[in-house]
Amino acid sequence: MPRTAASTLVSPVPRAADSDRRRTSASVVLRSVLEHGPVARSTIARLTGLSPASVTEHCARLAELGLVRESAVPRRSNGVGRPHVPVDLDDARFLVGGVHVAVPYTTVALLDLRGRVVARRELKHERTDAGWVLARAAEGLAELLAGVPDRRPLGVGVAVGGWVERETGSVVEHELLGWREVPVRELLGARTGLPVHVDGHARALVNGERLFGRARGSRSVLHLFMGNVVDAAFATNDEVHHGPRSAAGAIAHLPVPGGTEPCACGRTGCLQAELSERTLCRRARAAGVTGSANPMHVVAAAAGGDATARRLLVERARATGRAAGLLLDVLNPETVVVTEVGVIHFEDCLAALREAAGTARAADVLPTSFPDSVLAVAGGSVVLDALFRDPLAASPEAI
Ligand SMILES: [Zn+2]
């Protein structure tokens, strides 16, 4: 039966419910304050396309929740008319907790609403079972919070490598830690009494870069994380791609041309086997650079003039660049951010990375915005992304 004109006018796209629209508008207003604050309400209205009345209403609600406040000094518009009292983030009341679980240790941190690290601590893993690691993380957070009794925690973000399912807040699989189907959100929520958000660390950092780093304003960004775990995340228009069960970004077994390292999967030359920090350290030990398994010791040797250490780091940066180049071809992001120890510390590593990624796009390949605090920022970014996405739900009333 032919469709009538009337039936084709029924939109297949469901209309957003009023509550969804309110949440989205509150999010847009809070993001605008983060990016431009202190900023006049009239400017927010102009930047966001929301009506001045709606902006005023959202600012009042966000101020009630303690997330924004009026700036102390009113600014006059051209010296005439009513003073425009700008609004800004209220960063004196709240904090968020950040937890990043690496293979040898966990980083716990407190961050303010602008993603700045207020306090942090590294907790070495005496054991790697999830129960022990998460209990120790909860203790570590409690110790940090005890140091800032005048500020309340809004929630905790957890960033982990491997396959992490955001929806359920669980780690589906982390080969190196030996974690499988670990309900991180439940376990840590029970221990901290706080709302807990969980995500993969490459995705966490893409959100950190998008909200607080160099990728601000970029319409698409790829983040490549080269630690012991190697993975990637991709965001377009403020949305990080997750795919079914958040399995996107698994690049550990991407073949590296010319690779020689055997991988646990049975093949040779997989990206993670070839370029993990473990492999870097093993090669450095074999070359007599260092006796340690800490990549920072390779960096220190290179900084001290050890040519072999420098060569190993430049080679790793170049191979990382080739992987970045492949992903650039597939995804064509505006910006590529790479978190890798050599690239963070040495200009020639960054140059090797950019050259291997392809000279046409070299300027769009950037080192992490958080060279001194990348793991602390990763954990915090998970919960701050949730806060800026839905500030009304992440309110202190929810605690
Ligand atoms: Zn493999």
From TrEMBL:
Pfam families: ROK. InterPro entries: ATPase_NBD, ROK, WH-like_DNA-bd_sf, WH_DNA-bd_sf. PANTHER family: BIFUNCTIONAL UDP-N-ACETYLGLUCOSAMINE 2-EPIMERASE_N-ACETYLMANNOSAMINE KINASE, ROK (REPRESSOR, ORF, KINASE) FAMILY. Residues 1-10 have a biased composition (Polar residues). Residues 1-22 are annotated as: Disordered. Belongs to the ROK (NagC/XylR) family. This is Sugar kinase. It comes from the Bacteria.
